[in-house]
Amino acid sequence: MFHFDPMYFLFLLPAIALAGWAQLRVRSTFNEAHQIAAASRLSGAQVAQQILAAEGISDVGIERAEGFLGDHYDPRHKVLRLSDDVYNGRSLAALGIAAHEVGHAVQHAQRYAPLVVRNAVVPMASFGSNASWFLLFLGAMMSSFNLILAGIFLYSTVVFFQLVNLPVEFDASSRARAILLRRGIVSPAEDKTVGKVLNAAAMTYVAATITAVLTLLYYLMRFGLLGDRER
Ligand SMILES: [Zn+2]
Hints:
Elements: H1 6-34, H2 44-54, E1 61-65, E2 72-74, E3 79-83, H3 84-87, H4 92-109, H5 113-141, H6 145-182, H7 188-222
Parallel strand pairs: 1-3
Antiparallel strand pairs: 2-3
The structure holds zinc ion.
């Protein structure tokens, strides 16, 4: 693994291909749906404001964020950060993404269990994604099985994070679509386009999860904890 291992590349190839495809699809689907003006004529920021008010959430702010699709909800500061295209956009793509991010704020307000678990595991997983590599490297150099086990344990927190992230993301999207429809902000016909954008975005999370799972399997195999490959 610490020289170039073609096995690792082969192992991850399906995930790399899926991730690349998902990225391209998000861009093309977003660009396409960004051309379609929403009948409501509302901007992403206005829709976010309306939904927050309707859900009785008064302590979440809305800010503009940098970058293409850099949209996110920050649970620590209780802020929705919307990229310029979404904040000011009046397209179906802008409305869908704004509503998805509000979906996370609603999850937070309702203490949606997978979100609570995900937020709790974030510090460990971000530490694990860096430290695991170092421990595995050291463990392989020193032939220390305990260090390798510790590295694999740390990496499994990354896998766990990705796995609990999936229901969080899918739930935010289905909440978003239901709220937009229920409040009459989008029509059923418009909802189909919104669904395409949000499903494309969800695929990037699926790809990230598969990458993490395959990497973990690779580590397990490489260090002889699964099957009996080279020692
Ligand atoms: Zn999300």
